[in-house]
Specification:
Largest sheet: 4 strands, antiparallel
Shape: globular
Subcellular location: Nucleus, Nucleolus
Structural class: alpha+beta
Biased composition (Basic and acidic residues): 573-584
Domain BING4 C-terminal: 441-519
Organism: Panthera pardus
Strand order of the largest sheet: 1-28-27-26
InterPro entries: BING4_C_dom (IPR012952), WD40/YVTN_repeat-like_dom_sf (IPR015943), WD40_repeat_dom_sf (IPR036322), WD40_rpt (IPR001680), WDR46/Utp7 (IPR040315)
Number of strands: 28
Distance between the termini: 121 Å
Strand content: 25-35%
Radius of gyration: 40 Å
Length: 612
């Protein structure tokens, strides 16, 4: 007969199943070896109450000198244990990420957003300056990678028009395009019959939401062309030659027969600028807040609309100025003249930056694409030419038209539209910043009157045409950028957002003196002027203030400052500087050409002694 053993001190008494503590359930993200890995003992847990009693029974202070709580050897802080083989990172579900780290970005996509030319090496400068340049280059590279990743979030894609089985897209009419697109896009094609006050000039705002147009007989109106809501409509009782929106849709300028007038979106006249008289064409530079006017008297005037002052009034000395456009890339104004030349102007210079001979006859129209790479011109010789503006100013392609193009305009994606009489032709390239192909037109449309104004709507595949019969809105697939920057040009912004944007734009206004052909030259150092300034400073002071002071050894004690030791130390420093100069000169010199091998001959010659 078996007997139950008596409970001893070492063996804890057994508890009932109901009184036993339940085991903590293991979660799905916890492993079974969690407790054992942490170093927990596999034995039964001790009694917490008994441990607390033992802690209170320990003496606080002991007078025994042999047993001291301070050890004689200095105790060093223990280093935390490092994991020799760290396992793969796991998520809460316990699954391992099959693609750890950030997603790779293609080099071609990141290069599109990079603004630093890595082909140029960093200059030999001080270590502190070189470190700053390297940090700036690393930040620029990181920003370009982030921009390339965010490109995947763009919701829209550019449109296109393709013919079936070799069909010519120029034969596709606007009626066919309207029937094929959705209702919202079809509503963007409309005609305004305004024969009583034509011909018309028109202009879209920077956001692409508002349209302003003015007729030759004094009719001026602005409207939200998407919702067809009229903002204002007036008759100035004077001939209107051109119209332009200013930095926002709340203000627009009208070039009337005599003077320049500024109106608000309610049609109220705010300013009458009499110094700008007999204006023929208007252009607005948004980043500089400059309104450029070309007058009948041959003057090019720059008006700063933020302060209301005329920055520059330049005499072109070329007669009547009725052909003008701007370069969106560098804000340079292009003027076409009757002698077949196109001149490039900046308010910082009284003479033109460059002159290009484009046609044998007078220039009728000029247009520059959004990247500032190509310029299209048309003249009285019925020639349509495209020039390269990247320093060469050479014609890239030319085409003879049955009628000379009187109006030219580029879209945001590089499409070129030309108005010839009552016909509008559009040529397309391979994509953005590509050369338009002049061999065959992309689209063709015939109007009810002669063309007097062309303008592509920003961020919409729409071309606005002003003619003698009114206003026509054409659908041109693939003309505009499909995505817009909400912080720069937001078509859906509220009045409060527009006001905040105006304050920010005024704080970031670019001075008019910085307008030049190559904007990247502003970030470079003018080494020649810097050296000339340094020479003039040395001549004025009589000495070089930046020259390095001669080495003077510090005095030492215990007989080490004798004359011989001082001379020895000076000579040692001079030798080191001399070695550094020689080493730098050897690095800068090009590698010497290898000596040519002597030609091997069968028999030696008596003249070989003179060969070296």
């Amino acid at each position: 007969m078996e007997t139950v053993p008596k409970p001893s001190r070492d063996v804890p008494p057994k508890k009932n199943r109901l009184q036993a503590k339940k085991k903590k359930p293991r979660r799905y993200w916890e492993e079974e070896t969690t407790l054992t890995a942490a170093g927990a003992s596999p034995g039964p847990p001790g009694n917490k109450k008994r441990n607390r009693e033992l802690r209170h029974q320990r003496p606080k202070n002991t007078n025994n000198p042999k047993k001291s709580r301070f050890s004689r050897k200095p105790q060093l802080p223990k280093k935390p244990r490092e994991r020799r083989n760290p396992g793969p990172q796991r998520s809460l579900s316990g699954a391992q990420d099959p693609f750890p780290g950030p997603a790779p970005v293609p080099v071609e996509v990141a290069q599109k957003f990079c603004r630093i030319d890595k082909s140029k090496k960093l200059p030999h400068s001080k270590s502190k300056t070189r470190t700053r340049l390297e940090v700036a280059e690393a930040e620029e590279q990181e920003i370009s990678i982030k921009a390339a990743r965010s490109e995947l979030l763009l919701a829209e894609e550019p449109g296109f028009l393709e013919g079936e089985d070799g069909e010519d897209t120029a034969k596709i009419r606007q009626v066919d395009i309207v029937e094929a697109v959705d209702i919202a896009s079809a509503a963007k094609h409309f005609d305004l019959n305004l024969r009583q006050f034509g011909p018309y000039r028109l202009n879209y705002s920077r956001t692409g939401r508002h349209l302003a147009f003015g007729g030759r007989r004094g009719h001026v109106a602005t409207l939200d062309w998407v919702t067809k809501r009229l903002m204002c409509e007036i008759n100035v009782m004077e001939a209107v030659r051109d119209i332009r929106f200013l930095h926002s849709e709340a203000l627009f300028a009208v070039a009337q027969n005599r003077w320049l007038h500024i109106y608000d979106n309610q049609g109220i006249e705010l300013h009458c600028i009499r110094r700008c008289d007999r204006v023929m064409r208007l252009e607005f530079l948004p980043f500089h807040f400059l309104l450029a006017t070309a007058s009948e008297t041959g003057f090019l005037t720059y008006l700063d609309v933020s302060v209301g002052k005329i920055v520059a009034a330049l005499n072109a000395r070329a007669g009547r100025l009725d052909v003008m456009t701007k370069n969106p890339y560098n804000a340079v104004i292009h003027l076409g003249h009757s002698n077949g030349t196109v001149s490039l102007w900046s308010p910082a210079m009284k003479e033109p930056l460059a002159k290009i001979l484009c046609h044998r006859g007078g220039v009728r129209a000029v247009a520059v694409d959004s990247t500032g790479t190509y310029m299209a011109t048309s003249g009285l010789d019925h020639q349509l030419k495209i020039f390269d503006l990247r320093g060469t100013f050479q014609p890239l392609s030319a085409r003879t038209l049955p009628q000379g193009a009187g109006h030219l305009v580029f879209s945001q994606r590089g499409l070129l539209a030309a108005g010839m009489g009552d016909v509008v032709n559009i040529w397309a390239g391979q994509g953005k910043a590509s050369l338009p192909s002049l061999e065959q037109p992309y689209l063709t449309h015939r109007l009810s009157g002669h063309v007097h104004g062309l303008h592509f709507c920003p961020f919409e595949d729409v071309l606005g045409v002003g003619h003698t019969g009114g206003i026509t809105s054409m659908l041109v697939p693939g003309a505009a950028e499909p995505n817009f920057d909400g912080l720069e040009s937001n078509p859906y912004r509220s009045q409060k957002q527009r006001q905040e944007w105006e304050v920010k734009a005024l704080l970031e206004k670019v001075p008019a003196e910085l307008i030049c052909l190559d904007p990247r030259a502003l970030a470079e150092v003018d080494v020649i002027s810097l050296e000339q300034e340094k020479k003039e400073r040395i001549e004025r002071l009589g000495y070089d203030p930046e020259a390095k002071a001669p080495f003077q050894p510090k005095p030492k004690q215990k007989g080490r400052s004798s004359t011989a030791s001082l001379v020895k130390r000076k000579r040692k420093v001079m030798d080191e500087e001399h070695r550094d100069k020689v080493r730098q000169s050897l690095e800068q010199q090009p590698q010497k050409q290898e000596k040519k091998a002597k030609p091997t001959r069968a028999r030696p010659s008596a003249l070989d002694r003179f060969l070296r």
